[in-house]
């Protein structure tokens, strides 16, 4: 979860209102009621957990994809290959959350019988925050893994040409009394959407997030948007990004890197690739013992020595879980994000007035 700068234009919005308005917008774009509800839930889920870069900030972009960008609002995912624990899914040029959820559910169902299942996806589009999928597996006492390709925003270490995506990976491991261990991050120092939020707020981005177009480190959000995202761990981050990109595309035949499109012209519709895997804990270990040991590992991290001035140690997923509890009734969004949604809603004849009042 990113800690965004506060702004006087920030607004508090009811999650239920955000869900209803966003769902209505996607329905107006031609999606079925079921698909529109799922897509809206996935975005609100991200905002609840403080992952605003993958939340309703995306609504105008998604509307453009669904109405003029070539994504099929009625696209239906289908299985094109099914061999034991290996499944290939074609997203049918649907929104990525539709094909991705379909594929993750298949992997979970198959892992109940085979112990491990891997679904490779092609014919898809942007699929949002990856923990949406891996948390589904954890709810079934399974370890969930998910990855996706992304538009290229990084260069090989030392280069200045955008040919590598930040290509995120999520791994969720179920616990017993603690929230699940949820690792969900890309291999860039930040996400493009996070830089957009800083730009909306007129704030400088942190040092180490981005290069300008000539490969010089910058804290200027505008220069970062036209430049390059820095990889985490220098050359290591680029290598990991390439690996997740290949796992997300080569097994299904989806587009990799520049084949997918670019940040100026956008992605080519229906070319994204993802992967989703489920590991059924019960095939490896007693489930209760496994979950208890996850709790023990988390407790060990909590109880370990801290640097001076540090009040609490966190493991991946805890900050987001805490944030979701604190935002259960009101989500904080950047003012321009709310205004952009309202503008799209007005254009589609959707009543967005609920976004501007508290419940």
Essential attributes:
single chain; 3-stranded antiparallel beta sheet; alpha+beta
Write up what this structure looks like.
The protein is built from 11 helices and 14 strands. The longest helix has 19 residues, at 96-114. Helix 1 (15-28) runs antiparallel to helix 2 and helix 4 runs parallel beside helix 5. The mean pLDDT is 94. The relative contact order is 0.18. With 359 residues, it is of the alpha+beta class. 38% of the residues lie in helices and 17% in strands. It has a 7-stranded mixed beta sheet with strand order 2-3-4-13-5-6-7, with helices on both faces. It has a 3-stranded antiparallel beta sheet with strand order 9-8-10.
In short:
This protein is an alpha+beta fold and 359 residues long. The chain has helices at residues 15-28, 33-48, 59-67, 96-114, 131-138, 192-201, 221-226, 235-249, 287-303, 318-326, 335-347, and strands at 11-13, 78-83, 86-90, 116-124, 142-148, 169-173, 181-185, 210-211, 217-218, 228-229, 261-262, 266-267, 272-280, 331-333. Helix 4 (96-114) links the parallel strand 3 (86-90) and strand 4.
